[in-house]
Design brief:
Elements (H helix, E strand, L loop, with lengths): L20 H6 L18 H10 L2 H10 L5 H17 L5 H58 L25 H7 L5 H12 L7
Protein name: LOB domain-containing protein
Keywords: Coiled coil
Family: Belongs to the LOB domain-containing protein family.
Length: 207
């Protein structure tokens, strides 16, 4: 009959039949209340071997008991990571990895700043080229217009046609009585007397 563990973090391979990696390495009986059993599976003995070599089994047990039970899985993983880095770099350990990551971040930040500066320069150069193109186009259009105005002066409009004088207006007026009377004057009494005198006096035509 296997052992049961009341509180176990999710995603871990639990030891129910065989002893845990810590008890197997330490060659002792794995009790039901073993603090290493939920976090150091017998299928991954190299993890506890690194932790035991760097920190010691008693220190690891004390550190696991000092943190809340909900954070013990993360604590065990952190101890395994630090132990592996300490075995890889005995002088700096995890600080060497942190320093290398900081240097990598700084180099990437410098590269990013240089790329941003290049982008700004490219945009400025492109804007300047577009402005120069527009200015040269305007200058060429203005020069062509000036040359065309010099070579071919603008044609003058034709002179306006002379205005014909209006035809004289003919006024037809009906003859009035006054005009008729002015044209014809009847004989006066003096002429009548003259004729009477001539008729009364016998004037011989032949002597």
């Amino acid at each position: 009959m296997g052992r049961r563990h009341i509180l176990t973090p999710p995603g871990l391979i639990l030891n129910t039949i065989t002893p845990c990696a810590a008890c197997k390495l330490l060659r002792r009986r794995c009790a039901e209340e073993c603090p290493f059993s939920p976090y150091f599976s017998p299928h991954e003995p190299q993890k506890f071997a690194a932790v035991h070599k760097v920190f010691g089994a008693s220190n690891v047990s004390k550190m696991l008991m000092e943190v809340p039970e909900s954070q013990r899985a993360d604590t065990a993983n952190s101890l395994v990571y630090e132990a592996n880095l300490r075995l890889r770099d005995p002088v700096y350990g995890c600080m060497g990895a942190i320093s290398a990551l900081h240097q990598q971040i700084q180099s990437l930040q410098i590269e990013l700043n240089s790329l941003r500066a290049e982008i700004i320069k490219y945009k400025y150069r492109q804007a300047t080229n577009s402005n120069n193109t527009i200015t040269s186009t305007n200058d060429s259009v203005l020069a062509s217009e000036t040359l065309s105005s010099i070579v071919a002066p603008p044609s003058q409009p034709p002179p306006p046609l002379p205005l014909m004088p209006p035809p004289p207006s003919v006024v037809v007026s009906s003859p009035s009585s006054s005009s008729i009377s002015s044209l014809y004057t009847p004989p006066t009494s003096s002429s009548t007397g003259y004729s009477s005198n001539i008729s009364s006096v016998n004037v011989p035509y032949f002597d």
